[in-house]
Design a protein that fits this description.
This is Acyl-CoA reductase. This protein is of the alpha/beta class. Helix content is about 40%, strand content about 20%. It folds into two domains: about 260 residues, Aldehyde Dehydrogenase, Chain A, domain 1 (3-Layer(aba) Sandwich), CATH 3.40.605; about 180 residues, Aldehyde Dehydrogenase, Chain A, domain 2 (3-Layer(aba) Sandwich), CATH 3.40.309. The longest helix has 23 residues.
Length: about 500
């Protein structure tokens, strides 16, 4: 890793400044459990400074007053700098959270780059100004920046989640206080340097690593206009309650327990191979992964045979090793959570086709990838988000039963349908109550919205919808003669 950032300060108001307190956050490499860096743990006073800087940059600074085209120009320079640092970003996140290096560049660096490019592309046609003409009147409808955004992100794919919040915030003219997860603060430091080099004005983006108590202080801060959070459903409920007290705008992208439905005509060879990414990407630590596999009783033996072979083909080990496909969990707590679910699955009567034990490593936060069969819909491993390389196979007798099983979840984030009859598969996808459904694993791209039904969240990111939640809509009544030219002259 060629980049060495300064980890003794906070990025506030366009400067690297000393924190108010002495507390530090240890950053551990999950492969060895060893501390390799520390950063300041922000205090309430540091949050006050960050919000004040963002508030001043929004209320009196140049950023919101620039045209959309001028802001896009700055962000295109940022994109170029970001692209030049993809390898460094990937290596940094491997150190922070243990993502295997063979996929880190694509999962942890190129994915956020593509998200940024997607927002830049959509912005070119987003209706920031729109003339509405009716027999009852004429209005200029404008979409104005919502204000100061508190962006609170998790540790699993930190840069992708940051980009889902940062790109629409900056393009619309908002300013940001970014709160990275304690496990992965370093990539945010690199990001801050790149934004500064690109010419983003002082105070527009501020970075405050912090613990849970200080993070809640940020969420409740009167200087914040909107909170955008990605993380657990439990934390999302708390954030929604806090924001509701002040009617603060909030977007929540929360947990998932996504189902992949295998119809009887599915090509299992192709489908199971796609699960290498759709179910095991990032060592199983992605909220949208398909962790419930719904298959007919007739085809279950074939699926289980292929799943066992798939897992056997995915080496577990040191994330630096280019052969490794499943690395460690991010920390000891997450390792213990996953191992507990594996034990609970067996206690409730599920059978491990592969895995099911404790990973045999002297150090590091490793778990055994596990595939369960004989899983019933009410089992905890079929209802609760595990966030690790653990799959539950559930069998059905009829297609209606398959759809009912897929929908038997408090979550509704993602899903998949596998079939060789695409028209029929599309109809089945339309019956699954999730924000995203992938037909035969087909990606939706960066111009389509993502987000969840039910307990998987509130709001959408990406596409036009990704801009909507960072804007406030204003309608200005216009005399008809003035309206004819207003869009062209302003």
């Amino acid at each position: 890793m060629v980049w060495t950032g300064q980890f003794d300060k906070l990025f506030l108001g366009g400067e690297w400044v000393a924190p108010n307190g002495d507390d530090r956050i240890d950053v551990r490499f999950p492969g060895t459990e060893e501390v390799f860096a520390t950063v300041p743990s922000a205090t309430r006073g540091d949050v006050d400074r960050a919000v004040a800087a963002a508030r001043a940059a929004f209320d009196t600074g140049p950023w919101p007053k620039l045209s959309v085209g001028e802001r896009l120009g700055v962000l295109h320079r940022f994109r170029e700098l970001y692209t030049a640092h993809l390898d460094t970003m990937a290596e940094l996140i491997t150190e922070e959270m243990g993502c295997p290096s063979r996929t880190a560049r694509a999962v942890q660096a190129q994915a956020p780059q593509l998200l940024l490019e997607g927002y830049l592309e959509v912005a070119e046609s987003y209706p920031f100004r729109d003339l509405r003409v009716a027999s009852t009147g004429t209005a200029l409808v404008t979409r104005e920046p919502v204000g100061v955004v508190a962006a609170i992100v998790p540790w699993n794919v930190p840069q992708s989640v940051i980009m889902q919040k940062l790109a629409p915030s900056l393009i619309t003219g908002c300013t940001v206080v970014l709160k990275p997860a304690p496990e992965t603060p370093l990539d945010s430091y690199l990001l801050a340097e790149l934004l500064q080099q690109a010419g983003v004005p002082d105070g527009v983006v501020n970075v405050v690593p912090a613990d849970r108590e200080v993070s809640e202080y940020l969420v409740a801060h009167r200087g914040v206009d909107k909170v955008s959070f990605t993380g657990s459903t439990a934390a999302g409920r708390r954030i929604a309650a806090v924001c509701g007290g002040d009617l603060r705008r909030v977007t929540l992208e929360l947990g998932g327990k996504s189902a992949a439905v295998f119809l009887d005509d599915a090509d299992l060879d192709t489908a199971v191979e796609s699960l290498r990414l759709l179910s095991f990407r990032n060592s199983g630590q992605v909220c949208s992964l398909k962790t419930r596999l719904v298959v007919s009783r007739r085809r279950e033996p074939e699926l289980l045979e292929r799943l066992a072979a798939l897992v056997e083909s995915m080496p577990v080990g040191d994330p630096h090793d280019p052969e490794t496909q499943i690395g460690p969990m991010v920390n000891a707590r997450q390792r213990d959570i996953v191992n507990n679910y594996i034990a609970v699955g067996q206690q409730q009567g599920a059978r491990a086709v592969v895995g099911g034990g404790t990973a045999d490593f002297d150090r590091g936060y490793f778990v055994q990838p596990t595939v369960f069969t004989d899983v019933r819909p009410e089992h905890r491993i079929a209802q609760e988000e595990i966030f690790g390389p653990v799959l539950a196979v559930l069998r059905y007798d009829t297609e209606d039963e398959a759809i009912a099983i897929a929908n038997d979840s408090p979550y509704g984030l993602s899903g998949a349908v596998f079939t060789t009859d695409l028209e029929h598969g599309l109809a089945v996808a339309g019956r699954i109550r999730t924000g995203t459904v992938e037909l035969n694993g087909s990606p939706i791209g960066t111009h389509a919205p993502v987000g969840g039904f039910k307990s998987s969240g509130i709001g959408r990111e990406q596409g036009y919808e990704g801009f909507d939640s960072y804007t406030e809509t204003r309608s200005i009544g216009l005399p008809p003669t003035f309206a004819d030219t207003t869009l062209e002259t302003r």
